[in-house]
Amino acid sequence: MTDHDERLEVPVRRRHTTLRLLAIAALALPLTLPAGPAAATPHTSARHLTDVIPAPVDTRPDARAAFRITPRTVIRTAPGSAAARQVGNHLAETLRPATGYPLPVLPVRSTPLPEIALVLGGADHRVGQEGYQLDVTRQRVTIRANTSAGLFAGTQTLRQLLPADIEAPARRHATWTIPGGRIIDYPRFAYRGAMLTSPGTSTRSTRSPRTSTSSASTKSTTCTCT
């Protein structure tokens, strides 16, 4: 085999790996839904981007771009990043009980499925090392950050944007809609840098840049990601 042939073979192998992951995820989706009935819950009002507490640095709602989590939704993480994969796994474990959805975590560059994407790099220049940019469209939710700590902070904001029943320990009958638009957030004050254990090795404040503030929350807001 020539050097030219070897260079061609590498991207082919990568494409085959990606296709296998997508095929496995697609086959698993209808098979892993829980068989038990969902618990009945009262109607919950829709959330808005402006409901996030504390208020982010920059919020730009788009009422036409709401995203709905369904049984087909996947969580996509940055390929080659173990820390991003851990943040994705933590998010999936947080959302699965109440939704009853499998939410497979795929370390690939793209998917044809509705997705929540956790991407390292490409965020607004203001986010620094602890902030994030969260974009919600009808096709996907994308959280961009420069570090896994920023990705984790973005997932905590995502939790706030879902109905309060997302914190339930068992499946709930609900429409899991995330309001459309963009949020950019990052720590603005030095005092926000103590106490929250977030991905990476640092310990930060519950306002750095945020964590879930739902009084009904019984789930961990920490991720021991490295």
Summarize the structure.
The chain is α/β, with parallel strands linked by helices and 226 residues long. It has helices at 3-28, 82-99, 148-161; strands at 58-61, 67-69, 74-77, 105-106, 115-120, 132-136, 140-145, 176-178, 181-185, 196-197, 203-204. It is built from 3 helices and 11 strands, in the order αβββαββββαββββ.
What summary fits the major beta sheet? 7 strands, mixed
Strand order of the largest sheet: 1-9-6-7-5-3-4
End-to-end gap: 39 Å
Strand content: 15-25%
Compute the average pLDDT: 79
- Identify low-pLDDT runs: 31-36, 39-43, 191-197, 201-207, 212-218
Structural class: alpha/beta
Helix count equals 3
Q: What's the β-strand tally? A: 11
CA radius of gyration: 18 Å
Explain how this protein is built:
- With 226 residues, the chain is of the alpha/beta class.
- The protein is 26% helix and 19% strand.
- It contains three helices and eleven strands, in the order αβββαββββαββββ.
- The protein has helices at residues 3-28, 82-99, 148-161; strands at residues 58-61, 67-69, 74-77, 105-106, 115-120, 132-136, 140-145, 176-178, 181-185, 196-197, 203-204.
- The strands form three sheets. Strands 1-9-6-7-5-3-4 form a seven-stranded mixed beta sheet, sandwiched between helices.
- Strand 10 and strand 11 (203-204) form a beta hairpin.
- Helix 2 (82-99) packs parallel to helix 3.
- It is globular.
- The N and C termini lie far apart (39 Å).
- The relative contact order is 0.19.
- The model is unreliable at 31-36, 39-43, 191-197, 201-207 and 212-218 (pLDDT under 50).
